[in-house]
Amino acid sequence: MLDARGVGVPSCVHWGADLGDLSPQQLESMVDTQTLAIPPSSIGIPSTLSLLPVSSEGWSGTPGLSGHRGSQTVEPSFTLSRIDRRDQGSVLFALRDPAEGLEASVHLDLSPEGLLVTRTTVTNTGDTDFTLGRLGATLPVPPRAREVLDVTGRWSFERRPQRRELAHGSWSRQTRHGRNGHDSPELLAAGTPGFGFRSGEVWAVHLAFSGDHDLYAESHATGRAVLGAAELLAPGEITLAAGERYESPQILAAFSAAGLDGVSERFHSWARHRRPVGVRPVILNTWEAVYFDHDLERLTSLASVAASVGVERFVLDDGWMTGRTDDTRALGDWTVDPERWPLGLTPIIDHVHSLGMDFGLWVEPEMVSLDSDVARAHPEWVLTGSPNRLPQPWRNQFVLDLANPEAFDSVLGQLCALLDQYDIAYLKWDQNRDMLGGSAHRQTLATWRLMAELNSRYPSLEIESCSSGGGRTDLGVLQFTDRVWASDTNDPVERQRIQRYTSIVLPPEVIGSHLGATVAHTTGRQTDLGFRLATAFFGSAGIEWDLTTSTEEELASAATWIGEFKKHRAMLHSGTVVRADSADAAVELHGVVAADLSEAIFAVVCLEAPRDAASTGMILPGLDPAADYRVEPLDLGAPVQYFHGIPPWLAAGGATLSGLVLGSVGLAWPPLQAQQALVLRVVRL
Asked: Does residue 43 have a pLDDT over 90?
């Protein structure tokens, strides 16, 4: 609910539950009753929180807009010059301050899915340069939203949740990696104390941008509390000459009266309608199978075994470029190595196609090795923060300055040459370091431009956003990509929670999830095949394992798993993601419910030894309360391990109960051993 009366900047009076159809008189009365009293020792008029709050309005929190001209701070005082009502769910407010030489516009869209999408622009109408400090969105939350949630992490341990009280002050999650980073907050949610996946009111914001960003929550002693988001700009990074403008990234805001799952449903629906990715093929990626050891005979054998178990896409990972035998050289030279591939990639691609699979290729277009032809020929293309000084080394590579038109054209030309010569259906697009120098804003937009150009030239090409795992997983990059790699770890213990929290914002069909080897490459942990199968089942499924070393029993299990995935992926990749709240952190339950509530698939997961030896109350959420359902275990090809007798309903092969009972009373928990998962299929009768 927006108040655009008068000539000041409009304010957001209410963002949350639907208030029904109110008459103009009721609307005005409600807005008037939200006006705060004038507190002691404050400005002498009732304060409001505008859509672009600044200090001239009496706002002492994080400003919606800041900047300067030369050494003089600009303190705008905008007036409303125009309102454009584009349709029922879209409005643009045009603002101006002739004295400061600035114009701004705030565009709000309320999507059919119930997601609030905001974008703000500022234009320099003055005669001198204007240096922008920040430009973002600020949205109010009510006083009862006293707890905030975000996620953090590190390489291969992404998306770790953290909670805190929203006390007086500011909680700001800033990332300065030149990408989202493995510690990206992904979203910032404020809610009623104790809110969970299925309970509590929740307000959340997400910045759909792949560069540096700032998500923050503030609570003021004046009685105002807000959520905000903005691209994080370095000092002097955006300087607008007369007539130039800056447009903020999209900031997405969601409200749910029923916990985080309601927020997820809005984000997922919006992403699916914006860029539907369709049915996801089963992938085999070669990295953890062969690493840099590219040998045609070994790779053709791997492809043959992959096809025999049902793989649909074979992706050749790092190591195919000229001289690329380790990670110290050859980034930036996107030509096929003539020694290991004397006939080019044609033999492996032809073999892959003969097996009925399509072919994908790993690339890292934003990066360069100093030991490369391109760096030797054009050292000025290596991105630096200070002239003549390289950033700190990181994985033996540096960033290629894609904002340089010549560097951009060189990379685009090399990629197009590959795509024109070879039948490549898919690019695994990696990004294995932080920038640590240069403009994150310019580099991010140049990367997006490069992806968009490939989308335009090769409409059937699919791109995966892999950023040393989960370093770039945002809804902005999904304008151009069809998949993200949520983490470099295939350890199912870590993956369970990584996928649980990554999928709050991203729908499961775009989250790559792979079946790895018995011993995880990143952690050294050994896990059962059944647990690995159940973990990789929910997402864009694939394999990252040298199947040529697998036993016949393991290959049979993989074939069963892929067969079940193909049967159910249409529902898994279009349904509603649900997660139960558990009283024991050792046990979790998540699943996907079909849009028409006709079926669902759930995973019951035991990460470590549970608190209780046996218990009831295993809730299966999201079903039709008025319908009856049959609950049965789904065989993914490997046995599930229990530490003692299973409950009678499971011993009988399943149970028939109403959706109301399953969603409110539930079933007895199966006594799973640690690091085990049981997958259940639920079908409406």
From this structure: no
Three-state SS string over 210-249 comes to CCCEEEEEEECCCCCEEEEEEECCCCCCEEECCCCEEECC
d(CA 40, CA 17): 32
Q: What is the pLDDT of residues 72-106, one digit of tens each?
A: 999 999 999 999 998 888 999 999 999 999 999 99
Alpha-carbon gap, residue 364 to 465, rounded angstroms: 10
Instruction: Report helix, strand and coil shares of the chain as percent, to nearest 5.
Output: 25, 30, 45
Asked if the domains at 61-274 and 578-684 fall in one CATH topology, the answer is no
Using alpha carbons, list the distances in angstroms from residue 674 to 167, 227, 236, 499, 609.
38, 39, 52, 18, 5
Cα–Cα distance between 314 and 360 in angstroms, integer? 6
Segment 161-216, tens digit of pLDDT: 999 999 999 999 999 999 999 999 999 999 999 999 999 999 999 999 999 999 99
Collapsed DSSP state (helix, strand, coil) of residue 475: coil
Domain 578-684 annotated CATH 3.30.70.20: no
Write down the domain spans for the chain.
61-274, 578-684
The Cα–Cα gap between 177 and 154 comes to 12
Q: Is the dihedral of CA 295, 299, 302, 304 positive or negative?
A: negative
List residues with catalytic annotation: 430, 488
Amino acid, single-letter form, for residue 636: L
Rounded Cα distance, 115 and 50, in Å: 20
CA nearest to 237, candidates 447, 444, 438, 445: 438
The CATH number corresponding to 61-274 among 2.70.98.60, 3.30.230.70, 2.30.30.90, 3.90.1150.10 equals: 2.70.98.60
Strand ranges, E, within 13-146: 65-69, 72-73, 79-87, 90-97, 102-110, 116-124, 130-140
**Cα angle value 360/363/365 (rounded, 5°):** 145
d(CA 252, CA 258): 18
- Asked if 397 contacts 432 with a C-beta cutoff of 8 angstroms, the reply is yes
Say whether 298 sits in a helix, a strand or coil: helix
User: Cα(first)–Cα(last) distance of the chain, in Å?
Assistant: 42
Q: Per residue in 637-681, pLDDT tens?
A: 999 999 989 999 999 999 999 999 999 999 999 999 999 999 999
**What's the pTM?**
0.97
Give the whole-angstrom CA distance, residue 627 versus residue 683: 10
